[in-house]
Amino acid sequence: MSTVLASKGYIAGTEAPFIKEMSEITHHMWMQGWDELNGGNISYLLEEDEVAKYINVLEPLRTINLTFPVKELAGKYFIVTGSGKFFRNVIKDPEANLGVLRVSADGDSVEVLWGLRDGAVPTSELASHFMSHIERLKVDPSHRIVLHTHATNVIAMTFTHDLDELKFTKTLWEMCTECIVVFPDGVSVIPWIVPGSSEIGRETAKKMRDHRIVVWPHHGIFGTGSTMDATFGLIETVEKAATVYNLVAGKEIKQKITDQQLADLANAFKVTPKAGILNV
Ligand code: 2HA
Ligand code: ZN
Question: Could you say which residues bind Zn(2+) here (predicted)?
Answer without folding.
Answer: 148, 150, 219
